[in-house]
């Protein structure tokens, strides 16, 4: 008898917690459970919408900045969607235009990011265009 009472009390506590989490006005057990089900469904839809928005933002993230650092040196900053062999393609492009990479930092957790100091006899705008073409080619190959 005491065991049944404890189970009932525990069930009431759990239902009360569900009721407060879902901000349900219902008193009936079945209504509280249905409200919780709809609340979970609504949260799943919100999560899916956030994931879609995140993917949309990542897909449209593409930036290349080339700045002159001094005589013969350039700073190259690249931010774009993560793709297979992105770093290799960019370094091959550097090699094609006879650039020497002095220092480079690369990140590719959520997106591809690279900051490099290069020694070059090339104009910054030309290098910018070369890198943009490489990125566009790589992103087209991945999709």
UniProtKB/TrEMBL annotation:
One term of GO molecular function: DNA-binding transcription factor activity
Domain of life (superkingdom): Eukaryota
Cellular compartment(s): Nucleus
Cellular component terms (Gene Ontology): nucleus
Coiled-coil residue spans: 40-67
Entry keyword Coiled coil: yes
UniProt domain Plant bHLH transcription factor ACT-like: residue ranges: 63-136
Keywords: Coiled coil, Nucleus
Name this polypeptide is given: Plant bHLH transcription factor ACT-like domain-containing protein
Lineage: Eukaryota, Viridiplantae, Streptophyta, Embryophyta, Tracheophyta
């Amino acid at each position: 008898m005491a065991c049944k009472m404890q189970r009932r009390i525990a069930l009431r506590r759990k239902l009360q917690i569900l009721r407060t989490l879902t901000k349900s006005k219902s008193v009936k057990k079945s209504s509280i459970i249905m409200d919780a089900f709809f609340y979970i469904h609504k949260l799943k839809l919100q999560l899916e919408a956030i994931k879609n928005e995140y993917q949309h933002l990542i897909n449209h993230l593409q930036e290349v900045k080339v700045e002159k650092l001094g005589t013969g040196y350039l700073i190259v900053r690249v931010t774009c969607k993560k793709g297979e062999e992105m770093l290799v393609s960019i370094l091959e492009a550097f090699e094609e235009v006879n650039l020497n990479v002095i220092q480079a930092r690369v990140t590719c957790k959520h997106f591809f990011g690279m900051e490099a100091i290069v020694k070059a006899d090339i104009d910054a705008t030309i290098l910018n265009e070369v890198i943009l073409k490489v990125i566009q080619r790589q992103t087209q190959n991945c999709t």
